[in-house]
Amino acid sequence: MDLLELWAALGPGLAGVVFGVGWWLWVDAIVCSSVKISFVHYLPGIFATIAALMFNCVRKADIDYSPYEEGEWRLKLWLFFAYVVSFVSLAASVGFLVQDSIVKTGPSVWTGTAGVLQCVFVLGSGLIYWTHGE
């Protein structure tokens, strides 16, 4: 069994574990929080999950990388939109981390840190799954 076959066999499982760790960190932060977390704090993780689903809807084999042919512009536009959603969700989670560290009456810094880690792990799991094989 060569490395590509091993990656094709273990990649989806690894992606699932990384995805689960991301959401587990977020749920841990919500449960351990001493204040009520508003729904707005949930949105970066939800949109990161949607973005990971969006770029996993495109198969790597369907993308034409030729600069001289028109190729599948709809797929490229879909991927671009998915990456914009993913980076906006990551930026929003960093914004909540900064807000949580400044405001003393709001959620703790751990809640903001868990939100950033959740987005990183969820988006990382989506990329692991997207590259796992074919």
From TrEMBL:
It comes from the Eukaryota. It is a multi-pass membrane protein. Keywords: Membrane, Transmembrane, Transmembrane helix. The keyword Membrane applies. GO terms for cellular component: membrane. The chain crosses the membrane at residues 6-27, 39-58, 78-98, 110-130. It is found in: Membrane. Coiled coil: none annotated. Belongs to the UPF0220 family. This is Uncharacterized protein. It comes from Erythroxylum novogranatense.
